[in-house]
Amino acid sequence: MSLWQSVGDGLRDEAFTVLGQHVIWSDMIGNLFGLGALALGWRRSVWTWPVQFVAGAVLVTAYAFAQLSGGLGKQLLVMAVAAWGWRQWHTGRQDRGGQIAVRFASWRERAALVGATAAGTLAVGGLFTAVPELSWNPWPDAYIFVGTLAAMVAQARGLVEFWFAWLLVDLVGVPLAFSSGLAFSGLVYVIYLALALWGARDWWLRSRTGAPALEGAPA
User: Which of 1, 28, 113, 170 lies 20 to 30 A from 190 at CA?
Assistant: First the structure.
């Protein structure tokens, strides 16, 4: 057995059981990295992107060895957006502290983001419906997948709406994760929800010229 196959098999093993829910290593490790990426995004640290990339890579490894092509494809796209986001934050407009400057989207940008998200959800949901092996729950899965990509794109552009996109994803992601038996994912989504609320307020204040950061928030 090769090293990579051993790693892939290990990621699909059960880490522990809590309240009758079986938590697998890939679910736990991938989501912990994802949680770290969101926290770094709140801090406007450029390291949010490589951490998100690693989270996707962990899940890609697990999906590849489990021969789950739908999950594999989704995570590859997430990794691609993470690489693009890294570049955007390195070349984008920065504030006086040298961090990415945040702002609210224009109405045109909001319309484009909402329209692309709706069209993407319809397209991906249609694909998942036509090819059932890609997803056992096509429409919620498509909504979460496209919503996550939309949130990442908004984050890469330094838009406050990034956090609202995450909130909308969480509204479906929390119940879907628990109903799918992914207890750790469900728990992380709940934490995502709290971080998104806090982060939205912090970025909102930072987007206002001369406004102080949220008290207690990292600079």
Answer: 113
